[in-house]
């Protein structure tokens, strides 16, 4: 081992002392081998380079720990430059090798081997100089790699000076912008910028000069062909070794695909939203025309058609005619003087065979122009080149009609449009089926209402006559039995009269003909009389009235309000067959009066309470108690129309309390004044 003080320099290599001193002090690695290749000298710089101190006279050819070819494969000793020179005795050009040091570091060296001859010209050994070129080599590799990366990048990587003149142009730039390197280097970057965006370059250069990087700026640049390309660009300042900004590097990425996919996504979402809203609105709509207009409008806009229409299928045994029902995108007058589409080869597949027909250019369709009377498109008809027809099929398989779309340009309708309309047509068909049912039910119900109005009206006249005769008879002297029967008959006629009157009132309400005669009156007086009358007439129940100790003035139709209260009291008695008392209270609460009618009867379940005010509703446990289920419906209508409300509190099996709430007349007057 060499000591640290004494550099690990070994041997004389057969040199003169002066020459040796020269080499010892040299910063360049030198070593010498004898004619057999044995190491006879190396200097301090060589030790540093090898990262080790070889053993003089024992090691051959070189002091490196491992010698490699440039690509990293091991180099056999006999192939080292020195052994070659020794073998041939001829000087060699410098050569490049790679070595590995014991600490694992790699180095690149230039080797200059020189044969040494004695005075007689006999080969004595080799003197070798090693130059460490690792730094340069790495720089070179780095540059080559960078350049390869730049060249292989799909992004455009362009450098330019501060005047915007292009200095370099990679393969990606060529791909994106269509220009070759020769066509761009030396020219201004503005050649890529659309005219209306030229000011962008000034802004970019201004920022670059101030050392500011521009990150992912999305804009439009021009292709050689003139086509616009959406790009995302990043521009960074380029500095020289002194740190001065001398130019800019620009990376531009073509974002056409992204923009297109975003647009497609947006379109997809918009379509979904439309589908959703159309679906919802047609399922909520029970009117045929409303459904079809909504469907026609939405699908015409979705398909981008110039016009869209729904034709109703009027097929019968004699043939098919199609009747225009709804239209979108064109005035209806166009069709006014035109015959409706007929069973031509173009329409029949849709209306008869339930087929979707999509044609890019209908004028090239085999059947086009052959059918009389128009032989093609009728005069005045807007031009239809793209054609799309989709059947709307009912649940029972019948074609309700067809949705037809047209556009004056060819190839306007896609498979996507077709699918969208098919979906909507299917939803529309369900709604149309439902609406048919609804309309049937509605017309039945209207017929029923008409019948009730007519029947009750017709019943009213004979009833009044019968009551008149009975009253005349009851005034005549008669035996006890006859008198009893007369009284009972009168009582039944009264009941019948009330029922008929209820039916009539219901019809009036339904047809909006229930009129009120408004007057201001004291409801306390009215209630007093009612309670009195009931106390006399009711044989089964006692009526207890607790009335407000002052007059309670309201404004309303006296007769109808009385009818409402009588309904509640009659019910209280009817539906408490096992009890013998009902209660009537009148009080003033704030700006309202409240009439409460309470019984201890059969009571109501929550479900029954919910349905109480629907017409003809009767709870399931009312068998044996007569009624039509109209009293509460009428009561509520009357109270509602007086600006009041009705509340029910009840416990099943325990009794019920109905409260009528009406505004006091003062309040009403105040409100009128305020208005
Ligand atoms: P009607 O008495 O002719 O059946 P209403 O419209 O007056 O018709 O009442 C509707 C239904 O409400 C009754 O059939 C009955 O089931 C229930 N109802 C009304 N009042 C009471 C009450 N006080 N207690 C229990 N159930 C009642």
From TrEMBL:
Residues 454-666 form the Histidine kinase domain. The keyword Repeat does not apply. It catalyses: ATP + protein L-histidine = ADP + protein N-phospho-L-histidine. It comes from the Bacteria. GO terms for biological process: cellular response to phosphate starvation. Keywords: Kinase, Membrane, Phosphoprotein, Transferase, Two-component regulatory system. Its EC number is 2.7.13.3. The keyword Metal-binding does not apply. Residues 93-145, 213-267 form the PAC domain. One of its GO terms (cellular component) is plasma membrane. GO terms for molecular function: phosphoprotein phosphatase activity; phosphorelay sensor kinase activity. Residues 15-54, 142-211 form the PAS domain. This is histidine kinase. It comes from Salinimicrobium profundisediminis.
């Amino acid at each position: 081992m060499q000591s640290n003080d004494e550099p690990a320099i070994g041997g004389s290599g057969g040199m003169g002392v002066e020459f040796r001193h020269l080499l010892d002090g040299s910063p360049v690695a030198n070593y010498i081998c004898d004619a057999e290749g044995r190491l006879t000298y190396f200097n301090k710089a060589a030790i540093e380079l090898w990262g080790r101190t070889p053993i003089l006279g024992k090691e051959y050819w070189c002091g490196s720990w491992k010698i490699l070819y440039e690509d990293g494969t091991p180099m056999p000793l006999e192939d080292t430059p020195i052994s070659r020179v020794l073998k041939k005795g001829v000087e060699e050009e410098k050569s490049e090798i790679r070595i590995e040091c014991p600490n694992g570091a790699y180095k690149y060296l230039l080797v200059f081997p020189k044969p040494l001859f004695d005075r007689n010209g006999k080969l004595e050994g080799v003197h070798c100089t090693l130059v460490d070129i690792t730094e340069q080599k790495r720089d070179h590799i780095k540059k080559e790699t960078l350049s390869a990366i730049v060249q292989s990048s799909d992004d455009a990587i362009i450098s330019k000076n501060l005047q915007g003149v292009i200095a370099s142009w990679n393969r990606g730039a060529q791909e994106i912008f269509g220009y070759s390197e020769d066509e761009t280097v030396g020219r201004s970057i503005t050649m890529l910028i659309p005219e209306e965006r030229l000011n962008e370059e000034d802004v970019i250069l201004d920022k670059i000069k101030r050392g500011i990087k521009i990150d992912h700026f999305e804009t439009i640049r021009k292709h050689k062909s003139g086509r616009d390309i959406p790009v995302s660009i990043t521009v960074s300042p380029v500095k020289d070794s002194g740190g001065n900004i001398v130019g800019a590097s620009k990376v531009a990425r073509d974002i056409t695909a992204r923009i297109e996919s975003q647009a497609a996504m947006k379109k997809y979402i918009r379509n979904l939203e439309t589908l959703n809203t159309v679906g919802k609105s047609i399922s909520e709509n029970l009117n045929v025309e409303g459904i079809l207009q909504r469907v026609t409008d939405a699908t015409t806009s979705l398909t981008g058609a110039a016009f869209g229409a729904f034709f109703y299928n009027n097929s019968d045994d004699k043939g098919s005619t199609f009747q225009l029902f709804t239209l979108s995108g064109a005035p209806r007058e166009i069709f006014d003087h035109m015959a409706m589409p007929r069973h031509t080869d173009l329409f029949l597949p849709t209306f008869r065979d339930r087929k979707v027909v999509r044609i890019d250019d209908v004028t090239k369709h085999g059947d086009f122009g052959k059918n009389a009377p128009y032989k093609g498109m009728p005069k005045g008809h807007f031009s239809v080149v793209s054609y799309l027809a989709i059947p709307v099929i009912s649940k029972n398989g019948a074609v309700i009609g067809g949705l037809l779309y047209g556009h004056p340009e060819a190839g306007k309708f896609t498979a996507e449009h077709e699918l969208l309309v098919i979906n909507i047509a299917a939803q529309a068909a369900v709604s149309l089926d439902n609406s048919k049912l609804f309309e049937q039910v509605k017309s039945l119900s209207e017929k029923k209402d008409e019948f009730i109005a007519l029947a009750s009206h017709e019943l009213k006249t004979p009833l009044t006559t019968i009551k008149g005769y009975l009253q005349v008879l009851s005034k005549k002297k008669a035996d006890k039995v006859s008198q009893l029967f007369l009284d009972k008959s009168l009582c039944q006629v009264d009941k019948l009269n009330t029922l008929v009157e209820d039916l009539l009132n219901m019809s009036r309400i339904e047809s909006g003909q229930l009129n009120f005669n408004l007057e201001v009156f004291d409801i306390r007086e009215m209630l007093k009389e009612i309670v009195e009358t009931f106390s006399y007439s009711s044989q089964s129940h006692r009526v207890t009235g607790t009335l407000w100790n002052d007059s309670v003035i309201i404004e309303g139709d006296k007769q109808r309000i009385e009818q409402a209260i009588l309904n509640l009291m009659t019910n209280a008695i009817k539906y408490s067959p096992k009890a013998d008392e009902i209660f009537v209270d009148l009080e003033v609460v704030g700006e309202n009066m409240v009439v409460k009618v309470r019984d201890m009867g059969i009571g109501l379940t929550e479900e029954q309470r919910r349905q109480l005010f629907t017409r003809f509703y009767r709870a399931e446990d009312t068998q044996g108690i007569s009624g039509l289920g109209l009293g509460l419906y009428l009561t509520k209508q009357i109270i509602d129309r007086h600006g009041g409300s009705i509340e029910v509190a009840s416990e099943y099996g325990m009794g019920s309390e109905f409260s009528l709430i009406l505004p006091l007349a003062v309040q009403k007057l105040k409100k009128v004044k305020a208005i």
